[in-house]
Amino acid sequence: MIIDTFAKRRSQYALGRQHAYGQAQIEQIVRDAVRQAPSPFNCQSARVVVLFAGEHERLWAIVKSALAAIVDRESVQLSFDKIDTSFAAGIGTVLFFEDKTVIQSMQRQWPQYAENFPTWSEQSSGMAQFAVWTALAEADLGASLQHYNPLIDEAVRAQWALPHSWSLRAQMPFGSNQGPLPEKAFMKDTERFRSFG
């Protein structure tokens, strides 16, 4: 059942590089997941970059450089340690973007819904992220979702010559599961759900 697949998705911070997949296979998993994720009016505004090897490590060097400029020395070292032993230790990173040009085009095409498209874009991005994360989990790859944007936006855009219209929404480091997946705590259903009828 699909819910069982959803349940495999957890934040994994113990990432490694011991896996059975080639780069092309992982890229295809990501492409297929994003392709199947819904978007408002099927506008397909999600844009994705998958970084491997040295490019993956370059991203986390960018993050560290950005953090070093704004965080005190003691705190920044803790952040560096987490980056080095978790995010950068994996196979790669998926960068999720939303293309603002597409959203603006939809706003012009559907002016009666113009104010809703930015919100719908964020929802669509979240669904793409969930789809990729779940697909990676199904392939027995661990991942977590990080948000160093907007701190790293300009450096990322410049490093990989990405269009200015691509707005960075999240970073997903992934790799082999080098530790047990954490249990997820759930709040009481009575506090979260209601049903009528």
Automatic annotation (TrEMBL):
Main location (coarse class): cytoplasm
Subcellular location: Cytoplasm
Xref: Pfam families: Nitroreductase (PF00881)
One cellular component term from this protein's GO annotations in UniProt: cytoplasm
Residue ranges of every copy of the Nitroreductase domain listed in the record: 7-175
Keywords, alphabetical: Cytoplasm, Oxidoreductase
Keyword Cytoplasm (UniProt): yes
Any GO BP annotation: cellular response to oxidative stress
InterPro entries linked to this entry: Frm2/Hbn1, Nitroreductase, Nitroreductase-like
GO molecular function: oxidoreductase activity
Entry protein name: Nitroreductase family protein
Species per Swiss-Prot/TrEMBL record: Salinicola corii
